[in-house]
Amino acid sequence: MSSLQVAKALNNNVIIAQHPEHGEVVVIGKGIGFNRKTNDIIPLMAVEKMFILRNQQEQEQYKQLLPQVDEALIEIINDVITYIAEHTDVPLNEHIHIALTDHISFALKRKEQGIVIQNPFLYETREIYPDEYRMGDYAVRLIKEKLGVDLGMDEIGFIALHIYSAMTNQNISQVREHSQLITDLVSLVSTQLDYSFETESLDYSRLLTHLRFALERVRRGDKVEELHKLDSLLKLEYPEMYSLAWKLTKVMEKRLNLPVYPAEVGYLTIHLQRLNQRKEEENK
């Protein structure tokens, strides 16, 4: 069977159809929904883009969302999702179709009304999720090219977090919580060291990356090998940095409600000492 049966036309360019192997699928193509009625037959060769929403709840949400969204935007978002899929090795959570459509549609409405929302995690997002940030940048550039609207850098960061959410099967609220936690941890380090970070510096970038991977290890429950001799040496050699590292891991435990392996303290001490050294060199 090389054809699809129309279940519902959502607009001129998007239909829900019955696929011989995958059940209900979302089909996108120029004019594919024009004058289509339920049970109409469409040859597979007429289909430009198709994706499967296996989750019934996701399907229903997408059906409700699409009639409220500009058709040109639906096409752009699907181009963006295709681009993301081609530039990542991991399968995307299908919720990305709803999440990006809903988020970008709302961002365009806000822009139209002159409402600007600052992204508090922009720099951290660019540093911690560089691949996802590049994909978010592609999305914003494509929207500017096709719709003539520049959503700006803050939106690149927000879209990047949605992409990361889909790539790691995490809820977007979890991803935002992690970003907020990293921002708060960095702020704590800055306060304790009485040091304003040079955000473009390599040491700062390394600290952010280390915190990101530490949080991911904690979330996954990965065991970190303990280096007893090194740990004792660091505690003795850099007591203040070791104490600060310990404090940071306690904040992680409390906020994530998950245990943090003691070895993380030692690894974090090394990064903090590097920053502290930089501060001392600058103060000479």
From TrEMBL:
Domain PRD positions: 68-173, 174-282
PANTHER family per record: CRYPTIC BETA-GLUCOSIDE BGL OPERON ANTITERMINATOR, PROTEIN GLCT
Classification via SMART domains: CAT_RBD
This protein's name: PtsGHI operon antiterminator
GO function term, MF aspect, one: RNA binding
Native source organism of the sequence: Paenibacillus xylanivorans
Repeat recorded as keyword: yes
Similarity comment text for this entry: Belongs to the transcriptional antiterminator BglG family. GlcT subfamily.
Pfam families, A to Z: CAT_RBD, PRD
GO BP, one annotated term: positive regulation of DNA-templated transcription
Keywords: Repeat
Taxonomy of the source species: Bacteria, Bacillati, Bacillota, Bacilli, Bacillales
